[in-house]
Design brief:
single chain; 108 residues; alpha+beta; Ubiquitin-like (UB roll); five-stranded mixed beta sheet; 3 helices; 5 strands; 26% strand; elongated
Length: 108
């Protein structure tokens, strides 16, 4: 059966591979069968990474189905809230959304 593997080894670099795995294969078996993915990853790290199928976190023991998309998630390097605070400090202007409805107000 055919599955898709997507991962990002570093920011801005997204890799995508189509894999042929036997029926009933698990996520872990599919990942270990991909030499391009395994050579970039120490074997002990496989149990630490967050891995999902179609955007939902799944354990490595999950059996795959035809046309599943396996996604390997990198850990966050910066807290999103802290990143927003740093951006605001650089430019303290209030950012207003252009898509917010006016709520019945009339602009003249």
């Amino acid at each position: 059966m055919q599955v898709e593997l997507v991962w990002s080894p570093q920011a801005g670099d997204v890799r995508q591979l189509n894999l042929l795995v036997p029926a009933g294969a698990t996520i872990e078996q599919a990942l270990r069968a991909c030499p391009e993915f395994v050579e970039q990853l120490p074997p002990a790290l496989l149990g630490v990474l967050k891995i999902g199928v179609w955007g939902r976190l799944m354990p490595l023991s999950t059996p795959l189905r035809e046309r599943d998309r396996i996604e390997v998630y990198r850990p966050l390097t910066v807290d999103p809230k802290e990143s927003r605070r740093l951006r605001y400090r650089k430019s303290p202007e209030r950012v207003a959304s252009r898509h917010r409805p006016l709520g019945g107000k009339i602009v003249l």
